[in-house]
Each structure stands twice: as structure tokens, then as C-alpha cells.
Model the fold of this input.
Amino acid sequence: MNVAIVRAADWPDMLELAKLHIAAHHEAHGGYDRTIEDVARTWQAAADIHALLARASSGECVGFIAHRQISGDERFITDMYVRPDVRKSGIGQKLLRATLAPKSVSLTVWGGNAPAIALYEKLGFLPAGPAIVDQHGRSMIQMKWSV
Done:
């Protein structure tokens, strides 16, 4: 798939990103109790969250990545999602590469998400500590990329 744009998201993009975010939760966890508008408002209010989106040449939003700036040289990826119908087309790599500008990026990923783990490893992420258990009892793997 030809991805025309990977750019910083602004308020008009937030409803689209919130819709993708909710779809990701449904896919990974079987449900989500927040509305699209609620998620969009939360992200708009979170001044420390920065989102990038990927648009297909048709204009439709096909993926996003969100991160927090931890320090001048380090970012933490809070969310990433690529629509299932366009996975394995390079969109995830483009989003990650656009986020890898500082010297260090860290994230946590569900231990059962083998495709995501493979993508992160392909781009040079390494395990960064013991697995942790999230609020839903799932095993989460900590990973880190450094220059």
C-alpha cells in the first residue's frame, strides 16, 4: 500500500485516531468501554502525548503511533495501531522510524502479540527488563531501542 503521509496529528485527526484506538482494543482485548469522542477529548487534553498518523494515498487513516517525551533524548511509545487489512505493508515500520528520532525509545507490548514483537525486533528493539503484568493480568514485555 502506498502511504502518502506520515505526519503529526492535530485535532481534526483525533476522532479518526480514537476510532482506530478503540478498534485496536476490541481486537486485542475483546472490548472497550469508552466512546470515540471521550478518547479524542482525552488525547487532546494530554499535552504530553504526541501522535503521528499514516494516511493512504486515498486519504484514509490506516494507522497511528503515539508517544510521550520522557526526556530530551528518550520517548515512550504509548500506543500503536495499523489496520489489519494493511498490515505487513510497511506502515508500522514507517510510523516507528518517524518516532525513532531521539537516542532512545521504549515501549511495552503484550506478550501474545507476536507480529508486533517481530516488528520491534526487526527495527532493533531489545528486551529491557522483566515481563510485567498489566491491570488485566496480561504479561507485557518491556522493549527498548537505542542509538
